[in-house]
Amino acid sequence: MFRKILIANRGEIALRVQRACRELGIHTVAVHSTADAEAMHVRLADESVCIGPPPTKDSYLNTHAILSAASITGADAIHPGYGFLSENAGFADMVEAHGLTFIGPSADHIRIMGDKIAAKTAMASLGVPLVAGSDGEVADFEDARAVADRIGYPVLIKAAAGGGGRGMRAAASADALEEAWTAARGEARAAFGNEAVYIEKYLDKPRHIELQILADNAGHVVHFGERDCSLQRRHQKVLEEAGSPAISAAERDALGATATDALRKLGYRNAGTLEFLYQDGQFAFIEMNTRLQVEHPVTEMVCGVDLVREQIRVASGLPLGYEQAAIRFTGHAIECRVNAEHPVTFMPTPGRVTAFHPPGGLGVRVDSALYAGYVVPPFYDSMIAKLIVHAPTRPEAIARLRRALDEFAVVGIETTLPLHRRIVDEPSFQAGSFNIHWLEHFVSSGR
Ligand code: MV4
What we know:
Elements: E1 4-7, H1 11-23, E2 27-33, H2 40-43, E3 47-52, H3 63-73, E4 77-79, H4 89-97, E5 101-102, H5 107-114, H6 116-125, H7 141-151, E6 155-163, E7 166-171, H8 174-192, E8 197-201, E9 207-215, E10 221-233, E11 236-242, H9 249-266, E12 270-279, E13 282-289, H10 296-303, H11 307-315, E14 332-339, E15 351-352, E16 355-357, E17 364-368, E18 375-376, E19 383-391, H12 394-407, E20 409-411, H13 417-424, H14 427-430, H15 438-444
Parallel strand pairs: 1-2, 1-4, 2-3, 4-5
Antiparallel strand pairs: 6-7, 6-8, 9-10, 9-12, 10-11, 11-14, 12-13, 14-19, 15-18, 16-20, 17-19
């Protein structure tokens, strides 16, 4: 087992990883920018190193400063959290080249999944279902027209280097294809320096469902069920659930068997998430995330597992030590992402938090690095807290969520707490009948 882990992140996820380390008896090293000298993740770590000025490229993305910090403090592994360097294959290579362990998959697997075409090709060859579309890259417009004619309109043109909604263009009909093609390729070249694109049939009302998997270094792969992440605004998740109100236990088992089988054959290790679109009873793989995700707590609550602890254990070479059948799903969990943003305009609201009263009680978890007196800096992601509730059934989880949201007080800055209070009161949310467009409609309808 590792003796000391450097956590290359900030905010709630840095705290989350520290907590797992502490329970495993592992020393922690925090890194921070000058803007984060007073941050909770620095205060609670065993040691801390300032790695640069506020801009992320000079601090949390500064690979040389982070590796120097690991070297100076004698850390033997680096946990990247999510965002920042977590899906940077070059960084994973550098960490390993320095004789340290990168707590995550191999650089090669990060690289494959970072290329959405390579990811789909790999998954398809291993029996994972895809959306109807091109067989890999579409290199010229003649091919694009042939693919679209074959699969039928509407189609979606996606950048190979994209993901998370960047570099996508829809074409409703043949007339619109050329303009979408030119725009998608231009955007892909400008944003990623890679104009490779592929084409999929556009699904008009899917749910976004993702599957959490974990693999050890000896080829054992298990899954921890699905999360429903359909409630998004501008490709930012707002509220996530485990399990999905739309998925049966039989569907979960079947998808889990297909996915774990594929990742075993791929030789994947550590944590990962497969993203699917789900429509008309069918799953279609779209992307894989090779990191711990923001919404991992809902999975932890229904499975009773510490996913960060498991990531650290398998990265240190320990076997998983349990079979799929030992993973049981109990109750329902919901997470709300609380952002320092205006609840209607979504403009960021950095500034001083004068009072912070998180909710508590049975089945309530708050993952946050906030404290009264803290100044939310303007340089980073606006998420300031995750409220996670767990209860025996989805209706009970919703009742608990409403109660917890009513208790939750963040004073001094505006937050998205009022938006969450409106969502939980909405009958169609309570009925579980929503798709990826639901929240955009809800927000723009002004309810
Ligand atoms: C799609 C789609 C419809 N059809 N692919 C957006 C982000 C990226 N991860 C994939 N995305 C989509 N891919 C096909 N073939 C609709 C979306 C999409 C979406 C997906 C998940 C969650 C929210 C979304 C919001 C808009 C579009």
